[in-house]
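subagent[fold] <- orchestrator: predict structure for attached chain, return tokens only, no commentary.
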Amino acid sequence: MITLNLLADSIGTGGIVGIIVGIVLVLVLVVCITSIRIVSQAEEYIVEFLGKYRHTWGAGIHFLIPFFERVSNKVVLKEQVLDSKPQPVITKDNVTINIDSVVYFYVFDSKSFTYGAVNPLNALDNLSATTLRNIIGTMTLDDTLTSRDIINGKMTAILDEATDKWGIKVTRCEVKNIILPKEIQSAMEKQMKAEREKREAVLLAEAHQESVIKRAEGDKKARILEAEGQRDAEIARAEGEAKALLLRKQSEAETLKILSESNPSPAVIELKRFEAMVELANGRASKIIIPTDMSEMIRKSVAFNEVTGIGDVTPSEKDIISKENDDFCCDKEAQENHLKELKSR
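subagent[fold] -> orchestrator:
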């Protein structure tokens, strides 16, 4: 105390006042600095004046009135994810399953989010759990496993409507996982195994049927192609024979034409006839039909008679009669006289 008095006496009254003013200025500077608030992007600050809502600060720099205003809540405007824990749910066919869901949301009204519910995130979590129980309770186990899109759509619509007064916008709800009891899971595995075996048997039967059909179609096409090949071969063979016959006939016609133009002698003609007879005799036919002029030619030919012994030099009565008929065809009496003359000889 004595030291302070001595210090005060040494400084004087003016010095004390200066120190106090300096301290006050430092305190004011510190308060001003602490009253400056910088709000980041995608955030909002809820400011209260003497405990009452005054305004909402967006992104940027702001000044807070010391001792009268305060920031009651800092709200994030980004989309957030609420991951619920697995919870037991009873289906319509009395099967207890555990389901956990995920809710995507963002805050569109910071004032409603701050003053609408005591703990908006906890309220949203409980609301999603009760909504999920209500939806699953109206569906069977099979529908629950195969209708996730329907469950997600219903939950999104219900939660979005219920959280509007909290300043929350629910954008999407997803069923994350469905945990089945071991008994139900074992039964489903057996059912799936039976269905797979059934599908395998059906596929094998269809494959066998298809292979049989394909084989039959292949055999059919092969027979068709074989028949077409035989047909084409017969047509080609017939065309070849026709062309060969045509060429042979044309050759014969040209030969006859050459013979007719060369004026052959009777000896050559007789020789050609004998050649034709030889060709007829060389055939395999058991009967040979000889033209009448050919037989006449054979009887008249001395060389042929000498070789074969067929025919007779002395004419018979019928030959004489047939020969004389040419001269006495119109005189019957002359024919009888001539016949008597021959007999007297």
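orchestrator: received. Logging for downstream: The CA atoms of residues 45 and 74 lie 5 Å apart. The two ends are 216 Å apart (CA to CA).
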